[in-house]
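Notebook entry, structure prediction.
Reason for the run: the old model in the group folder had no record of what sequence produced it. Starting over properly, with the input documented here first.
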Amino acid sequence: MTTDPACAGGVDDREVVLLLTTMPSASENPERARILVQSGRVACIARTPGVRSTYLYEGRLEESEEEQWVMKTTRGRAKELLARAAEWHPYAVPELLVVPIVDGLSTYMSWVADSCRSSG
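New structure, fully documented this time:
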């Protein structure tokens, strides 16, 4: 693959990755998802409601109902989203995991890369 000098941080903007996160089960989630897609930051977000999370936070055992988000994006856009997470993610310490894609249908991979275009 070639490196696109216009992409975030000089990272190959054609490399497709998954960005995983959990979000609170709340009515603002559809709007937040639309903004991320319409801005070109992600090509698609698959939202799975009804996820029960159990975790330790600030020394307390917590349980919450959340949505699991699987975002299809590029490595450059994922780096941008990680760097700007505090601006768009409602959690103080969000789960944001970048998962590399080993292979995939070339037409789908191209669609994701083209959808995550650079925008001002």
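Summary: The two ends are 24 Å apart (CA to CA).
The old model has been moved to the deprecated folder.
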